[in-house]
Write a structure and sequence with these properties.
alpha+beta, single chain, 35% helix, 10 helices
């Protein structure tokens, strides 16, 4: 990779990690475990879907505070407030419980990151260049899956992506795919309070990803996931690295549980919970 492209990659990382909503805090020295921990921002392992939603909502509102305060155009202010509400509504409506009901996630790139009928669920957050998926088990956050649009990195290879991550988070170990699964490239980091994997999904899905997990929960997955994949109708994909060691109507109100409200089908508007 040309040197100029590598610097472009670092700039892209600065944009994605260093500033803005749901970005890494960027306060620790490069290559330190602290930098990896701070990838979660203010969100903490063990939070409920409602807590994560409220934090994300707070961050969205903060990102709109300045443009709203600066505009003197009532129409523009209304447009900004509508867009802000749409962003929070999209997060709320993304909430899904893996209760055995088939979904697109069962055959997509997240296959293998969750199981059905084990109290697991997720929230999805979209930004211009990333998608974040927050995974919960028994209402407790234990994983964040961040997919980066590879186009952001101007054709950088996964090796370049990995080098940029290691410059920020420290040296990684090369992961070994589970036998029988695609030979996806991946890197891993292990710290006392956080586990991380960088995975190359560019060939099949057009992005690279960074997966963060709570070590304590990962170590207990064998006990927490009492319903096996063949019983729940889901499974496959990449095995979590520490595991080696240790009907629409029925769910119509699921998304509203995380906001603390019950919403009628004919009234989909968001009611903010302060």
């Amino acid at each position: 990779m040309r040197r100029s492209s590598y610097w472009a990659l670092l700039v892209a990382f600065g944009m994605l990690f260093g500033v803005g909503m749901r970005a890494d805090m960027g306060m620790a020295s490069a290559g330190s475990p602290r930098a990896l921990e701070q990838s979660m921002g203010d969100i903490q392992w063990g939070w409920s879907p409602k807590q994560v939603y409220r934090q994300l909502k707070k961050e969205i509102e903060a990102s709109y505070q300045e443009p709203i305060s600066k505009t003197t155009d009532a129409i523009e202010e209304d447009r900004l407030r509508h867009k802000m509400a749409e962003e929070t509504r999209e997060i709320r409506d993304s909430y899904l419980e893996f209760d055995g009901t088939p979904s697109a996630y069962d055959s997509g790139y997240l296959k293998g990151e969750f199981t059905h009928k084990n109290g697991e669920s997720l929230l999805r957050v979209r930004t211009e260049n990333t998608q974040d998926f927050f995974f919960f088990i028994n209402e407790r956050l234990w994983k964040r899956y961040r997919a980066f649009d590879a186009s952001v990195f101007e054709g950088a290879s996964f090796a370049d992506f990995g080098r940029a991550l290691q410059q920020r988070y420290g040296k990684a170990k090369t992961g070994v795919p589970t036998p029988g699964t695609p030979s996806t490239q991946w890197l891993e980091w292990r710290e006392p309070r956080i586990l991380a994997r960088a995975v190359d999904n560019n060939e099949f899905y057009g992005f690279y990803c960074l997966i963060l997990e709570d070590p304590k929960t990962v170590a207990q997955l064998g006990k927490l996931r009492k319903t096996r994949a063949n019983e729940a109708g889901a499974g496959g994909g990449l095995v979590d690295m520490v595991e080696e060691q240790s009907d629409e109507d029925q769910n119509a109100d699921i998304a509203d549980r995380i906001t603390g409200e019950i919403r009628r089908h004919d009234a989909p508007e968001v009611v903010d919970q302060k």
